[in-house]
Amino acid sequence: MTKMATSKFVRLGVMVVLAASTGCAGGSTIAPAVSVAASNAGYILPNLRFAHRYQSILPNVTANTKSKYFDYIINDYGSYASIFDYPTGRKQIGTIKGAGGQGCTNVLYGYGKGIFWNIAGADEITEYQVPQKSLKTLAITGGSLPSSCAMNADGDLAVGILFGTEKGAIALFKKASGTPAFIKTPLDTEFFDGYDNKGNLFFDGTAQSVPFQLDEIPAGTTTVRTITTSNTVSFPGSVQWDGTYLTVEDQKANAIYRYSIGGTKATLKNTVRLNGSSDCAQTWIAAGVVYCADAGADGGEVFKYPQGGKPVAVLQGNFDEPLGTVAVEK
Q1: Which neighbouring-strand residues pair with 246?
Q2: How far is C-alpha 154 from the chain's CA centre?
Q3: 183: which of 147, 172, 191, 283 lies 20 to 30 Å off by Cα?
Q4: Domain-by-domain residue ranges, the chain?
Q5: What's the average model confidence in pLDDT over 146-159?
Q6: pTM (2 decimals)?
Q7: Using an 8 Å Cβ cutoff, are 96 and 105 in contact?
Q8: What's the whole-number average pLDDT of the chain?
Q9: Residue partners of 220: CB distance under 8 A and separation at least 6
Q10: What does the pLDDT look like over 222-265, one tens digit per residue?
Q11: What are phi and psi of 235, to 5 degrees?
């Protein structure tokens, strides 16, 4: 990768698309990734990657298992998702070609119920039935490239926009269908989002040369307010409710911060250390564990939650700069 000392590019490993109109085979659009990717300073301009570059050499592999649980490590945009059935086993059991980026499911934390979403590109916001059946695809038009997703209890799908004409915005698909309504935010780039148990949407990214900012859209409104954290977050990471606290992962610190929210202040209650990880680009908190898509180590790990510490499992399979993860049950 080529390092560039200029604010034209996004800091610390965010894969930025140079032209939103750039296309590729199948009509898909190159999409950005969100990862520190083990870089410590400066700006980088990665090699451009074309969607579906792996499809001819890495076909779908059907995940045949009697396991109740399915765990996904979602790799670089346009590549593939690796399927696991931890805790039954640690070895990869299947592949979804053409997937990439981040994932989310229909629960706030724990194991999703039967389905998950993959944000693989502007016209590749796809719902899958476990283990790997594609159900439907949504799209964002107009040159905006999505990054994150989250679902609330009503089934609405909130998709964050990293780059393009609506950069920093939240695209809201009511009942996860149709065309989205865009909610403008103060962010220049939106990285991760998650709902809490009251239907408030929290999301992070960068804003006006600020390397980290946490914002909220309170339930039932389109109002955006900035949340001040009581500690310093070095680099934006996953935002997720864990059943007790709102959590924000710090990719650079390899830690998950657990906050209580009061008004516009997030007070740190506990820190979960992900020892041994290199760069968890996305984490997913399930039942007693948290999954890490480790972009820095090209792998996936499982940690106890909220204890943290060393991984209880290292997943074994094929990886290419993992960016997302999610866990679902039949």
Answers
A1: 241, 259
A2: 20
A3: 283
A4: 57-329
A5: 97
A6: 0.87
A7: no
A8: 86
A9: 199
A10: 999 999 999 999 999 999 999 999 999 999 999 999 999 999 99
A11: -155, 135
CA 17 to chain centre: 17
Report the C-alpha gap between 85 and 198 in whole angstroms.
31
Q: Which of 91, 78, 74 is nearest to 280 (CA)?
A: 74
Dihedral in degrees, nearest 10, Cα atoms 18, 39, 124, 290: -160
Single out the residue of 99, 104, 102, 69 nearest to residue 84, CA to CA: 69
CATH architecture under which domain 57-329 falls: 6 Propeller (2.120)
pLDDT digits (tens, 9 = 90+) for 158-172: 999 999 999 999 999
- Of 166, 201, 172, nearest to 187 by C-alpha is 166
Instruction: Name the token pair of 227.
Output: 């949340």
Exposure string (b/e) for 114-130, b if CB count within 10 Å is 16 or more?
ebbbbbbbbbbbbbbeb
**Which residue(s) pair with 129 in the sheet?**
115, 133
Sign of the torsion formed by the C-alpha atoms of 253, 305, 303 and 158: negative
